[in-house]
Specification:
Layout (H helix, E strand, L loop, with lengths): L2 H14 L5 H18 L9 H13 L4 H20 L26 H15 L4 H16 L3 H5 L6 E2 L4 E5 L5 E5 L2 H19 L20 H16 L7 H13 L4 H8 L4 H4 L1 H17 L4
Antiparallel strand pairs: 1-2, 2-3
Helix pairs in contact: 1-2, 2-3, 2-4, 3-4, 5-6, 6-8, 6-10, 10-13
Amino acid sequence: MEFMVAAGAFAEHLQQVRRLSPATVRAYRSDLRDLGDSIGGRDLADIDLEALRDWLWRATQRGDARSTLARRAAAARSFFSWAQDEGLIEHDPSLRLVAPKRGRTLPTIASRESLTALLDARRAAAAGGDPIALRDHAILELLYGAGIRVSELCGLDLDDLDLDRGTARVLGKGSKERVVPFGAPARKAIGAYLTRGRPALATRGEASSPAVFLGARGGRIGPRTVYAVVAEALGPLVGADTVGPHALRHSAATHLLDGGADLRAVQEILGHASLGTTQIYTHVSAERLTATYRLAHPRA
């Protein structure tokens, strides 16, 4: 069987049998198309380990990131494992295919002082009563105050909030529900938005929405809008043109650990399935500690 014909059948398998998301299926298609371009119109049974290694080497030469190489190698292994299970090939040539390890990328964070100044300025801007200013201030306070993901924020409904207790019920990855706390500044910002901002935005929609955060047209806010809000506010602080809501989540986690929070507690707040995912923030804190030591200690 010709390789690209088999790749198309594999993509159908991912979509129809494994029920993967359209975005994931597109990623597999893209990676296998790149492999197809590398090997030409070769038959599936004629592809060997050297052809796969040559494919990754070419990707390295054109400057593909390590994460991209690792993803493509994983896609190839999944494809050839499926092909062997389906009886299309006798031996899996990808069993010994090794991609470069992913480099550890430390998350972008903002300092406590800069975030305090930013949020104070946003509170002052929202005091004028503009609905969008009230909403954006509440969004920034909640993303930082609770450390939630952008998808969790966009999915919040009114009955998910408990302002008296300062908690929000969110639906995280894998449809896992958790309750996260947030502090007095977020509680006040959300309260002001719900009282003075949200009603004005709700009148712009055709039907009432249960969503906490509404867009300019009165419907549930989307991730793209939240990204734009955070990028405009946070970009100048961290010196990056492309910065999103995750930077506030990273900042919240790092500041919790800097303040002495238990790693397990931070894991619960962030909704990480693995403690190892949370531990990356200990590296950020350790780097800050080392930098402070080198600047301040006379024997550094």
